[in-house]
Amino acid sequence: MKNRLKVLRAGRDWTQADLADQLQVTRQTINAIEKGKYDPSLPLAFKLAALFGMPIEAIFSPDRE
Amino acid sequence: MTDERAQTSLQAGLKKSTFTLFLATGAWVGSTAIMSFGPSTLWSYDASTTYLAIAANLIIGLVMLYSFFKHLSAMDEMQRQTHLEAIALTLGITMVLTVIYGALPQARVLENVQPTNVLFVIGVSYILSVITLWLRRTRA
Fold it and tell me: Would you give the end-to-end CA distance of chain A in angstroms?
């Protein structure tokens, strides 16, 4: 799954640690999601969408698209 | 914001559950040693004391199991998934190697097999699986 997390995070001038803190996950998890090495659970994806104020599909997209 | 400040509550929960698991595992190892060596060295094979030691070992084992579940719950989702995948890998590796190991006496490659050696395989497989899976996800 691809995502725009790094771009969105940078747009708000947040570090990976800042984002991890708001989502109650480790910084390594944010890093792995950004690099496409880990797909977040649906609850975490919803938390991310709520945090950035946009729908999930605006952040994540399938690899084939 | 630094990593230290950012991860305070998550890491505090994990630290607490790790310590509890450490204590429970230590107690289980201790009670296993008492159950194994106590009859011959401490209470001269008194049956009721042996049953008591077995019951204590079972109860402490269940407490350790509960502590492990609590430890898994305290992890963040990627850590938890890594450990669950490592458990699945460990199960598969242990099953395959145990079947081979169990067949060795019949094939006259080994005279005796020790069931406790399976515990060693489980421990090593689990540790190596966690490290490998974690590095795959976190390495740059």
Answer: 10
User: Does position B72 have pLDDT exceeding 90, yes or no?
Assistant: yes
CB contact under 8 A, B7 and A15: no
Write out chain A residues lying below 8 Å of B1, CB-based. 15, 17-18, 21
Q: What would the pLDDT profile of B78-120 be if each residue is shown by its tens digit? A: 999 999 999 999 999 999 999 999 999 999 998 888 888 899 9
Angle between helices B47-74 and B8-41 (to 10 degrees): 170
* Amino acid identity, position A44: L
The total domain count for chain B is 2
CA distances from B132 to A55, B82, B109, B139, B140 (A): 34, 9, 32, 10, 14
A8: domain CATH number is 1.10.260.40
Q: Which domain holds residue B3?
A: 1-74
Residues in chain B closer than 8 A to A15 (CB atoms): 1
Structure tokens at B38: 């106590």
How many alpha carbons fall within 13 Å on the CB side of residue B71? Answer: 18
ipTM, 2 decimals? 0.91
